[in-house]
Amino acid sequence: MSATALLQAIVDGVLTGGVYALMAAGLSLVFGVMDVINIAQGVLIVLGAYLSYVLSVHLGIDLFAGLLIIAPLFFVLGMGIEWGLMRRLREGDRTAMSILVTYAVAIVIEGVLTLVFGIDFVQLHAPYVDSSLHIFGFFLPYIYVLGFALAAALLAGLYVMLYRTKFGRAVRASLQNRMAADLVGINVARTRTISMGIGVAVTAVGGMVFGATNAFNPNSGYDLISRLLAIVILGGMGSIGGAMAAAVFLLVLNDVVAVAWSPVWAPLVFFAALVVVLSVKPEGLFGKPPVRAQ
Amino acid sequence: MSALLEVSEVSKSFGGVHALAGCELEVAEGSITGLIGPNGSGKTTLFNVVTGYERANGGEVRLNGASIRNASPGRVFRLGVGRTFQLTRIFARLTVAENVLVATQRHEGWLRGVMRGAGSSSERRRAYELLEFVGIAHLAGEPAGSLSYGQRKLLEFASLLVADPTVLLLDEPAGGVNPTLINQLADRIRELNRAGKTFLVVEHNMEFVMGLCDTVTVLDQGRTLMSGAPEDVRSHAGVLDAYLGAGESGESRPEASARSRVAITGEPADDPRPAAADALLELRGVTAGYGGGDILKDVTFEVPAGAITCVVGPNGAGKSTMLKAVSGLLHPRLGEIRFRGERTSGMTPGEVLARGISHVPQAHSLFADMTVAENVEMGAYTVDDKAVARARLREVEELFPIVRDRADHKAGALSGGQQRLVELARCLMLDPTLIILDEPSMGLDPQARATVFEMVAVMNRQGRTILLVEQNVRAGLELSSTAVVLENGRVRLTGTGREVLDHPEIGALYLGGAIEAADR
Amino acid sequence: MSVRPSTAARPWRALQAAGIAAAVLVLGVFPLVVSDPTLMSIAVFTLIFMVAATAWNAFSGFSGYLALGHAVFFGTGGYAVALAARDWHFKGGWDVFALLPVGGVVAGLAAIPIGLVALRTRRHTFVVVTIAIFFIFQLAAFNLPLTGGTAGIQLPTPLWSADTFNRPFFYVTAIILVLTVLAVWGIRRSRFGLQLLAIRDDEDRARGLGVETGRVKLAAFVFSAIPVGMVGGMNVYFIGQIFPQFAFDPLFDISIALMAFLGGLGTLAGPLIGALVLESLQQYLTQTFSAGGVYLVAYGVLFLAVILLLPRGVVPSVAELLASRRMRASERRRSGGAGVSGVAEPAP
Questions:
Q1: Which of A100, A272, A278 has the CB atom closest to C129's CB atom?
Q2: pLDDT for the residue numbered B326
Q3: With CB atoms 3.0 to 4.6 Å apart as the test, which of A3, A255, A294, B163 could cross-link to A13 if both were Cys?
Q4: How far is A197 from chain C (nearest CA, A)?
Q5: What's residue C345's pLDDT?
Q6: What residues in chain A have per-residue pLDDT under 70?
Q7: Residue B237: is its pLDDT beyond 70?
């Protein structure tokens, strides 16, 4: 394996890592604000890919342009899931229950996709999907570069939203002290709903990029969610920055192993790294260490 | 008597905050030692360090001469040191008896545990004896979660005793407990002490500490200020300055000393308000609860405009529930609440806030990771005009300089008293007509308490009506002109502060008598 | 002096005793009465899931740590039995049943390193870690030559007559079920069980009281893997072959959790009832719709309905109903001479 091949793998890893970072950030945000772990994130990405597919193949709409339709749709979907399901969970074991509820939602969505599209694999196509930027001897597929750029822009937007807007302050306040947030007049319920909407809307972008770079079918959601969970655990649950760093790290590792050893084993090392880090630092790289007693 | 527990030069920091800085403590074997100090002086941190819940940054902790510094909580427990927590912790879904049995696991490995029943007959007998000792044996089969606050404290205490510890560290054992139970608790402690157990007790309840302990150590800002017999500590000038605030006359009559500790600058409380004062807030037939059952039952009373009204009553009476009903955190099942004639029961907290009612809840309600300035600004969250919000902030800063002084500090790093002041500042941001305060002085040392009450009086003089719930009943009633007594969700008595204070039965039951100093 | 809740009064106890007697009777007599092979096959699967759900509940229900990766043990046990039968040249018949403990032991051994890693994390991270570990195993099963890859492994077919073919499977699984239930019941009553429950309510405090929480959790985790491994082997033998897809099936994890939730998490009878109801339903759905999209949708919706509408499960709800009825009865008896507090209410 040559140095160029290795570097290429690293570059690929960074680019795809950026997109995964966006989707993982969505997961982390939802967990941080609502204590909800959205297992359906994986299958939602697949749903996004299918919607992009429908728009591009049946309506001839460009993949990126299609996002302008799909992302708002997903935003509404996310709000709907929160309003219809999450709200009914009791405060006590909210997180554990949310895992079960979202797992169920994932199954339902997978079922619907199977009914509508069948189990054959499909992939998204566009002129820029199949061609690359040629720089310094490296091939940077356009789709990766554009996807990465979009992801980076959205992540920056997320940061700005949280720390510079009024809504962002409401989000952080609801996260830190729910009763106080209620008492200063924040509509905590609405804040949570919108946060979930955002968390799901980002999967639209991820879905499009994923669909363009992988063949997928309704079953693909499992692989995705397991990677996203690994990323979010590694980075530390609730830490958006941690999720981003972990995403890039793990994807780079994944791609390097694929090149250096075998593509079949690449995902396995992905998880093995997770297990190793957890054995040493159970709260993840950037998570808060468990607080003992009072 | 030799020192059973020795703490020398212990220091512990959390980021930039030095919770303990060269702390010294000696607990003599067979003694009951008290540990007092202003809020933020490091008492609970010291407990955590001694029992292994926190790691010390420096210094040494010795038990019977052997170092236990940085030992795990389980190990410390096995060595014979037991502790209770400030916020009572029990196993809610286990029965009361099972709670006590869990602690009997000390000397056995888990593998044998699979073979044996939950408790041998001798262990069960002992568990029952201990429950009898603290007086809750009749509840042995009930799930622990159904116990009242005071009963939970007793259960926690009994669970501790199962392991037969040599040293017991009690963190605010009397906090939030009904006055009659406090006496019971003190008796039990004395009994155990006579049987040879050593105690280290943290408390804010001065009568409790002074009446019970043979030695008292005073902490201030993470350092030991002094240590000695209660009378000596009481009269030590340094202690008085740092801690007791206003001069302590040293009288044995607790009512008198309580009054002298609180600086009242408002109108004298025993002036009955003119009967013609308009009712700003009215509650009529309010019945409310949290889904399980009704906590408030047909509550009816009025809060006169411009006055300070105090609600008192034993634990579980429904005081906090009532405040939540007023501010919209809870909707009454029956009855209605009217503010300035408008029906507010059923509104959201945001709508109630907009009408001019501001609520400072019992628990800490600051946003811990935001700065003090950000927290206070959040008080004006619903105001869109930034200029108006900023102007208001300046006004509030005048009244509460701490907001300006500690503007950039993370709110979570402030001491309890300071946080309370910031909470009061925040609630003023929308210029409220009615301020609801739920136990503003809870967990604060006498000096911070005096400051808080002073600010309450100041806010009242600005023309705001105050509705106050206070566990520190004497101080609360001193401050207010109208009082309401709540018991079991019903209004038992209303009147002026003086009337309620002087009512014979109320006085005995709700204000509690002093702990009689034991004859030594 | 009893430590059981005082609300466990006679009507409830009588119901319990009657239920147990009836259940044992049914177990013994069922195969002799029923001859329809489809029904028998459903029964065997139901028993398998009853064992799995009960074992899972012994860990997750008692400790409060939801493990969503037990399919790992189901599949590992299955592979252990399949490989042993193939490599040790078993002929097929009663002798293969002797391999079931092997499946259980292998699953238990696998649970040790998994538990050591996963149990270091907090509760909700733990759930996610078990899911992640499950996917690793799934991936490994697809790719390792050891497992025969996607072609799978065939098991020897026992030479029993067609009419009574299912009976041995039924009885052996029933025996495993009885043993598992007894073991879990024993744990519940033991000191070990008490420690687990204490961990569920307040782990830090339990640790502070001297409970060795790490070891207790790991022991419970490993214990829960063993019966699951055994019935994993049974499952594979019954079907006759093993593929990675259904050896490591995420729906298995969800199913046993759902069964325990439906019946009542942390109770003894709960998982049994839940498995009985759900597995029958699951089999019906498979027969009617086959494992396609509709099946998934129906299952997911059912799951949502249970979680949202019956969050406590059947068994606790029934117990509560009986308890509240008794309480209301005694309250009515007491309300005859209700005294009022003696404090006078002076006029303001």
A1: A278
A2: 93
A3: A255
A4: 20
A5: 29
A6: 1, 91-92, 287-294
A7: no
Phi, psi values for residue B504, rounded to 5°:
-55, -50
* Closest Cα in chain A, distance from residue B234 (Å): 30
Hey, are the CB atoms on C127 and A97 less than 8 Å from each other?
Answer: no
List domains and CATH numbers for chain A: 3-280 (1.10.3470)
Strands B81-83 and B167-171: parallel
C10 part of contact set with chain A, CB < 8 Å:
no
CB contact under 8 A, C122 and A265: no
Handedness of CA C37, C38, C41, C42 (dihedral sign): negative
Amino acid B225: pLDDT? 83
Nearest-5° Cα angle at C5, C3 to C7: 145
Residue A28's nearest CA partner among A258, A248, A255, A244 is A244
Q: Is B124 close to C3, i.e. CB distance below 8 A?
A: yes
* Residue C135 contacts A, CB cutoff 8 Å: yes
Name chain A's partners: 3 or more CB pairs within 8 A: B, C
- Asked if C5 lies within 8 A of B143 by C-beta distance, the reply is yes
Count Cα atoms within 13 angstroms, Cβ side, for B168.
27
> What ipTM describes this predicted complex?
0.78
pLDDT for the residue numbered B443: 66
Q: Cβ of B191: how many Cβ atoms within 10 Å?
A: 11
Task: Please judge whether A282 and C121 are an interchain contact, meaning their C-beta atoms are less than 8 angstroms apart.
Answer: yes
Cβ-defined contact of B495 to C348 (cutoff 8 Å): yes
Report the 10 Å Cβ neighbour count for A72: 13
pLDDT digits (tens, 9 = 90+) for B289-314: 876 567 788 899 899 999 999 998 76
Model confidence, pTM: 0.76
Tokens of C221: 């985790």
Question: pLDDT for A80-123, tens place per residue?
Answer: 988 888 877 776 677 778 888 898 899 899 999 998 998 889 88
Average pLDDT, chain C: 81
Q: Does A85 touch chain C (CB under 8 A)?
A: yes
DSSP B79-103: TTEEE--SS----TTSBHHHHHHHG
**Cα–Cα distances in Å, from C105 out to B314, C87, C205, C257, C335?**
58, 18, 33, 22, 59
The answer to whether A267 contacts C261, with C-beta atoms less than 8 Å apart, is no
Contact between C270 and C260 under an 8 Å Cβ cutoff? The reply is yes
Is the minimum CB–CB distance between B506 and chain C shorter than 8 Å? yes
List C residues 159-198 in contact with A (Cβ-Cβ < 8 A): none
Q: Touching check for A95 and chain C: CB below 8 Å?
A: yes
User: Region C124-137: what's the mean pLDDT?
Assistant: 82
Distance from CA of C210 to the nearest CA of A (A): 14
Given a cut of 80, is residue B361 above it in pLDDT?
A: yes
